Amino acid sequence: MPDTKSIRTRIKGVKSTLHLTEAMGTVASSKMRKANQAMQSAKEFQSMLDELIPRVAVHAKGHSYLREGGDRCKVIVIAGDRGMAGGYNANVFRTVAKMQNAEVVPIGKRACNKYGAQVCSSERFFADDAKRLADELCDQFRAGAFDRLVIVSSKYISAMEQRVHTEQILPLSAQQDRETEIVFEPSPEQVLDVYVPQYVAGKILCAVRESFACEITARKTAMDSAGKNAREMSDNLQLMYNRARQGAITQEITEILAGR
Length: 260
Known about the structure:
- It is a single chain.
- It is elongated and about 105 Å long.
- It has one domain: Pyruvate Kinase, Chain: A, domain 1 (3-Layer(aba) Sandwich).
- 60% of the residues lie in helices and 13% in strands.
- It has a four-stranded mixed sheet with strand order 2-1-3-4, with helices on both faces.
- Helix 1 runs antiparallel to helix 5 (188-257) and helix 4 (127-142) packs across helix 5 (188-257).
- The longest helix is centred in the C-terminal third of the chain and has 70 residues, at 188-257.
- The chain is built from five helices and four strands.
- It is an alpha/beta fold.
């Protein structure tokens, strides 16, 4: 017969875990709306640059931002600040592990801890941080320090699905402009000099904000699932406890009636 004391201890532990999962789920829910709004705002700004930069690049052939060749890759890895988000962080790290000749630039406390870098929060990563990082990476690329700049982040599909997303940022790809010839002042090369760092900064900021929205959503889903499992386990343990307690009472009554 199960020990009622040990069952009671387990029930207490499960209920304590349930309180924790409910609290974390509530915090995630409160952040979801703000995170989604920030993600949408970043996407709107980025979509404008995604349309502009390739159209300028086609008129600036030979520019250093269009340099091809080489396999030295610098990878911006965006992960979360915390765990308890299902496979959110693990899926990103698994993708990066498959990449060769890659130098990692981590964003997010979990990524910084994994790759031994200075801690950088994904939740508190702002436009100024993206601009500083983009300026540094653009200078390094133009100096030939690496050949490709790639971002590995998470893409928001829906509240129930988030996927790891890999995107190459540099070198630029040129898109043939179907409209009339565009006149650039002072020149397309100088336009790229000014706008590519902003383009890279926008890409980084957009990826960070989308990844953070994915992290919050994944954590909410994970905590809801954990809470459901904890409630089921608590109910089963309570039923087991009641049976064990009833069995102990019946045993005592039997022994009294037998005069032991």
